[in-house]
Amino acid sequence: MLIWVSIVLALIALSVLLFLNLSPQFGGKITKEREAQYSKSKNYKDGKFINIGNVTMEMSRGDAWKATKGMLNPKSDSKPSRNIEVNPVDSLNLVNYGEQTRLIWFGHSSFLVQMNEKNILIDPMFGDVPAPHPWLGVKRFSNKLPIAVEKLPQINAVLISHDHYDHLDYGSIQKLKNKVKLFYVPLGVGVHLEAWGVEKEKIIELDWWEETSLGDLKFIATPAQHFSGRGFSDRAKTLWCSWILKSSSERIFFSGDSGYANHFKEIGSKYGPFDFALLECGQYNKLWPVVHMFPEEAAQAGIDLSAKTIMPIHWGAFKLAHHSWTDPVERVSIKAKELGVHLITPVIGESIELNTIEQIGSEWWKQ
Asked: Is the pTM here over 0.90, yes or no?
């Protein structure tokens, strides 16, 4: 019996080892040449990217065990009790659209932005589970997307904030890569795209505060307080960022994933005011307070950015923390009202037009 148990354990260990080394989900590896290039960045130290002030997400063994127990024994309301219905999006409407700037939310942190007659995807995670394998995560709260990936129009640009699975998805990139003209990513993230078959010429990597133009639009990579990594040995090997989308008359801010810190005020001072700020507002916990904002902090970040309107994101699609699935939107709504911040909570798939943004609002999660 002992021999058979040993054989089974050996086979399991071998399977895990093969998966870690052969699965394309984990992406590419940073080469020595790239490390030499990234060493020129102020945000790179001792072979890793760093946050402002060297802020790190470090947990004690006790805290790590608490986090694990929370994931293994989740609250009953950490997921919705029903399938979340989404607004369907018509493919012809997307193709023929050429009017004022609008956004369409796909849940969590994924958006399609139609701006100055260009189609831009932000953190396009269209998969069912934000993990390297379906067994390692919780399925999306809705059983379908507003529109199938295959029916999306040609995409002028994809903006990626960092390489975590709920923001950079292998399956989504495989479906998108042939209809995307350019990918804009923080330093290092291009290595994953190249490993997945995206041509190097289509990838533009930016450091914090660097900007680039796409016709009459500007994309600016700005700081965030977070971390990166897709495996066990690549923590902080790629950079993370927030993004600004800027036209001659409009400015949109996308936070990516970030803890609350002074960089929001600095971004607001340099590039604000913003017409619209998409602010992460979910998957927080007292065990990791520096890498994700609490809802009340997201509302304050809207003030720091001088944003006319804010929208809570990073919720409504996946369970990645211990709080109830509606806790983020309920708490940020209360705090935004208290601070006098205009907040919208559109339905997944709803058209968000900047010139009529005041008209958007519902408590759809209560229905």
From this structure: yes
